[in-house]
Amino acid sequence: MSRQKGDRALTKNIVPCTNELMKQAEMVVRTVFPWMTPFEWLSFIAIRHRDSFLGRLLSRVAGVEDLVAFDVYLDETNAVRGTTGLYRYEKDAHEAVWVAWFCVDPAVRGRGVGQALIDHTVERARNAGFKKIRLYTSTDPNEETAQRLYERNGFKEVRRERGLFTTIIFRERTIPDAEQGVV
Questions:
Q1: What is the rounded distance in angstroms from the CA atom of residue 69 to the CA atom of residue 99?
Q2: Would you list the DSSP string of 123-183?
Q3: pLDDT, tens digit (0-9, with 9 covering 90-100), for 32-63
Q4: Do the strands 97-104 and 64-74 form a parallel or antiparallel pair, or are they unpaired?
């Protein structure tokens, strides 16, 4: 089976994150990103409680317009092995959607899960009518493989900012054939 066909098959394992799956999703995120900033930690609380007053308040404080989606990759045992999401910032909600908490459990890396998650995320953004998709990542050595994945998938570096421990890399991709408008 070709890699492309295999990746398409893997996208069938990506489902919306339910309350029952959220604890597993958070464990994967914390494994991949053990050094979350307070802002990142609060943003995950906002995702976990997205339908509550607390979640909406934390989102607003962070400048997030809305959470478009938060999905998980499930392996054959229905364990969460990856996460991805989409959200809009108030400052650029009219022009782009941002990738939220894209990560793959280190135990399943190299098996096409990251590519399946990227394909799913871009398709979700396209189906919602977005023209641009943005993300931020860093120069942390643990993110080197992700950098190559982003590059292969058309996410171009648009700027860098010095962070506390690493440099933050901002990336953007134009989505071909996106319909006008947003969610």
A1: 9
A2: HHHHHTT-SEEEEEEE--GGGHHHHHHHHHTT-EEEEEEE-SSSEEEEEEEE-TTPPSS--
A3: 888 877 777 788 788 888 888 988 888 888 88
A4: unpaired
pLDDT of residue 117 exceeding 80: yes
Please check whether residue 128 is in contact with residue 16, taking contact to mean a CB–CB distance below 8 angstroms: no
Residue 49 gets which letter from DSSP? T
Q: Domain 3-174 is classified in which CATH homologous superfamily?
A: Gcn5-related N-acetyltransferase (GNAT) (3.40.630.30)
Domain spans, the chain: 3-174
Candidates 47, 68, 172; CA nearest to 129 is 68
Q: How many angstroms separate the CA atoms of 68 and 85, rounded?
A: 7
Q: What is the DSSP letter of 108?
A: G
pTM for the full predicted model? 0.85
Angle between helices 144-152 and 113-127 (to 10 degrees): 50
β partners of residue 66 = 88
Q: Give the count of alpha carbons within 13 A of 62, CB side only.
A: 24
Residues 6+ apart with CB under 8 A from 28: 72, 80, 81, 82, 83, 103, 105
**Which amino acid would we find at residue 107?**
A
Whether 131 contacts 94, CB under 8 Å: no
